[in-house]
Amino acid sequence: MKLTRTFALLAAVAVPVCVTPMSFAMAEEVTIDTARGPATLEANPKSVAVFDMAALDTLDALGVEPTGRVDKILLTRLDHLDGAAVVGTLFEPDLEALAGLNPDLTIVGGRSATKLEDVSQVGPAIDMTISEDIIAQSRERLEAYGKLFDKQDKAQELDAALQAKLDKVHAEAEGQGTALVVLTNGPKVSAYGVGSRFGWIHDAVGLSQAAEGLSVASHGDAISFEFIAQTNPDWLFVIDRGAAIGAEGQSAKETLDNPLVAETTAAQKDQIVYLNAGDAYIAGGGYQALMEMLDQVDTAFASSDG
Questions:
Q1: What pLDDT sits at residue 10?
Q2: CATH number of 30-151
Q3: Which residues of 24-48 are buried (b: 16+ CB within 10 A; e: fewer)?
Q4: How far is the C-alpha of 60 from the C-alpha of 50, rounded, in Å?
């Protein structure tokens, strides 16, 4: 009996284990820069949920389609992404829907950045917020996504096109005077200077500020029409918050249609540029958003008397 048990034990130990080559295969990893420092991730994730419009805009430029998205995209050029599963809003993830999707990676940023820890409960997640240094950080995010999704060549191609556009607009800006950047919210108007949320426009366009000492706070400085008249900018760049979020009410053009603004150099020379509201307010720092706004400025400069 003891001999029988011994043979049975040896036979059990000798049973071969079937090991396929994949058993020892390790997923390739890459390290990219994020808003919270370097992050090491599995390369080329197949399923990606995106809660940030700038990220969604840049990924679309690279040809990366998300499998999860926010409920309202608010940019018509991204309507073709409607097939992705809705996993929350710009501000609040639907963790149940996100868990059901089970993405390889979740990207938050901007309005959703505070939810990084929440979505990290479902799986790998990164914060790709773009702050006030819009141009530089937009290019950093483009490079990071190119590396993450194995689209380095495409990312470099897009970055070169952006640099060419920046160079062109800067060359056209010479001798064009000063600019004032304002945001309208119905009848209310705020101004933004260098270092603020929309102050990057001065760097991107190459025009100096018409008004010095403006706040760098995210809501800008509340201003009057008298302030615009006294500042008398050569160029006025306008962002319509209501139009960006699809709100009803007074438009930016209606708000600025008054005698004081009409007397400015910007109005007299037809140099008031109404930037694409969604690009500026919703997807600030997104690659396509930047290119579209620079195209608007390029067109405005081309038709200007200088």
A1: 35
A2: 3.40.50.1980
A3: eeeeeeeebbbbeeebebeebbeeb
A4: 11
- For the chain, residues classed under CATH 3.40.50.1980 are 30-151, 174-302
Give per-residue pLDDT as tens, 69-101: 999 998 999 999 999 999 999 999 999 999 999
DSSP H/E element including 28: none
Q: Quick count: other Cβ atoms within 10 Å of Cβ 129?
A: 21
What number is the average pLDDT over the span 192-196? 90
Q: Assign 3-class secondary structure to 120-183.
A: CCCCCEEECCCCCCHHHHHHHHHHHHHHHCCCHHHHHHHHHHHHHHHHHHHHHHCCCCEEEEEE
Which has the closest alpha carbon to 217: 235, 199, 233? Answer: 199
State pTM to two decimals.
0.88
Q: Would you place residue 219 in the very low, low, confident or very high pLDDT band (cuts 50, 70, 90)? A: confident
Handedness of CA 131, 244, 184, 235 (dihedral sign): positive
The residue length of the chain stands at 306
- Each as own residue / partner, the long-range contacts of residues 146-150 (CB below 8 Å, 24 or more positions apart, any chain) are 146/62, 147/30, 147/32, 148/30, 148/32, 148/41, 148/43, 148/44, 148/45, 149/44, 149/45, 149/59, 149/62, 149/64, 150/43, 150/44
137 and 130 in contact (C-beta within 8 Å)? Answer: yes
Name the CATH topology of 174-302. Rossmann fold (3.40.50)
Q: Are 242 and 251 in contact (CB under 8 A)?
A: yes
Q: What is the pLDDT of residues 201-213, one digit of tens each?
A: 998 999 999 998 8
